[in-house]
LysR family transcriptional regulator
Amino acid sequence: METRELRYFVAVAEELHFGRAARRLGIAQPPLSRAIGQLERRLGVMLLERTSRGVVLTEAGAVLLREGLAALDAVDAAARRTQRAAAGRSSLVLVTKAGASSELLAKLLDAYAAEPGAVTVDVQLCGPGEQERLLRDGRADVALLHRPYDSTVGFDTEELATEGQVAVLPAGHPLTVEARVRTADVADLPGLPMPRWPRPDGTYAEGPGPAVRDHAQLLQLIALGRASAVLPDSVRPLLRDDLAVVPVVDAPRVTTVIAWPPHSRSLALAGLVRTATAL
């Protein structure tokens, strides 16, 4: 398969409409339809079911969409890493979710900076789920990810820390006098709905909770009495006096890992990983 064919198919599979996909790609609809038909004939499978309203992905099409996105990410990553290498920049780009593992990140940067041969580490803070995408598409060299919320499939990883989770509530809320709570206790709080985080495509699921982009926004909403949340215990240093936490006994434990592409041969990256695991 050619990269062009994959990009054509992904556009149709995401739009589920040949006309919208053609406009997105900047081409006419007939050559797009022909290209998809040729791809189906070459693979010997039906990828899309055409209807009067648009198109529907077949099971085979859903597989090619998932695999095709990964392949296109790999192609884009190869181009970006090649361009960065040609630029001669002696640095690493580390991505992490804003507000997550702040204390661990600070210790890691300080410890690595003290190592012989350390290079500059450019830290990029991003929203939930973005660090995985930036690492896959070559805009980052290394990431701090958090299982079970982030996927580490296809990366090399080292575990750095595991922690429990806490309910973050407005200070003075009746539940804050409890020694511990369960997830259901927080999910059912009147007037304090759980937040809605963005999906990978940037959209939000329907629900009563506020749509949030980062921890700073969420914590302010909680302090205002508009939301509650269950977050990793390491959020404590970020909390203001108008917030309180209670351990959540049945919440899944969160493991912070350092992750990088398995084909990386960067000595600087290897040094950063060694420093991280030593901590």
Summary: The first strand starts at residue 48 and ends at 50. The mean pLDDT is 90.
